Amino acid sequence: MIKISELRLHDVINITDGKRLGMIKDIDIDVETGRIKAFILPGATKLFSFLSKSEEIVVPWEKIVRIGVDVILIELSSGGQPAAK
């Protein structure tokens, strides 16, 4: 078993392109079932990010391949959207 506070310390890696996407910013939980629906990651930073709202990457639970000791592997297309299977 792993705590949410520990999950937020894991690096998230996209296995499709090998990119490191950062750490989990937030977690979307279904309050009725108590299950995790998605991980929310910070989007790409822009040159003048302080002037604009940053975009987020939402990773549905189904796109999580493996949660390891210090890394979470996900499968997203190169555009930051879930990869088609």
UniProtKB/TrEMBL annotation:
It comes from the Bacteria. PANTHER family: SPORULATION PROTEIN YLMC-RELATED. Residues 2-77 form the PRC-barrel domain. Coiled coil: none annotated. InterPro entries: PRC-brl_dom (IPR027275), PRC_barrel-like_sf (IPR011033), Spore_YlmC/YmxH (IPR014238). It comes from Thermacetogenium phaeum (strain ATCC BAA-254 / DSM 26808 / PB). Pfam families: PRC (PF05239). This is Sporulation protein YlmC/YmxH family.
